[in-house]
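Sequence of Macrocin-O-methyltransferase TylF (Actinokineospora auranticolor).
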Amino acid sequence: MTRFAHQVENATYGDIDRARKIYGEAFRLTFEYVYGSHIPGAVAEFGCFEGFSTLLLADLVAEFRAETEFYAETFPRHVYVYDSFQGFPTSEGNPVDSISYEVADSGYWREHEDASPPGTEQMLREEFTRRLGASGWTIVPGLFSDSLPAHPITEPVAIANLDCDLYSSTVEVLDHLLGQRLLPDGAVLLMDDYNCNRANPRFGMRRAMRECFARTDGFYEYSEFLRYGWHGRAFFAHRLGDSPNPDAG
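Predicted 3D structure, token representation.
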């Protein structure tokens, strides 16, 4: 994997080498599984902060794209990145996030916290061009509530990295992916903040996963894939609907 041309920080770990080890192994296992299982679809990230995980994903796309002799079948992997670049939306008036530990107690997920440093979006565009070429990737700025309806993903998504922290933001992303039936059978959801909010099932990603999958009325279910760091967990999405082609929309 190539080294970063820009030094970017990771919001979860102060030790950048430890962050690379934890995320690097989890992401690599995910790519090995998706490519080894011949699962079609894009790689999508929701929430990028300074671009740490974004560039890891881009490097893996480039690396695995080149391994055509090892894998019997490969698929195009368009890369999508959605982020406000302005930090978190407000949780005021939200009955779940407003009373969560990360908002009401620590205050870490308050409005505009974790805003990307100035120039982050442009840096990512330059780095994507360097790593992946002039096409094959899309960066969409804005809050998910605005960007997903205005610029929806319309192709299958094999790997989705959700680093959107809040319950409300996670719901917006999952409802888009699940509601539009964008996840092929066996797709992977990387849930970066699954154990945040003291791992309480009333808050955050734990609650969002449970409720959003329930809204599919049995079309989708999920099961655990792997755990990474103290915070993250990856899941398989299983299509159990009535489509005769499990990869059809």
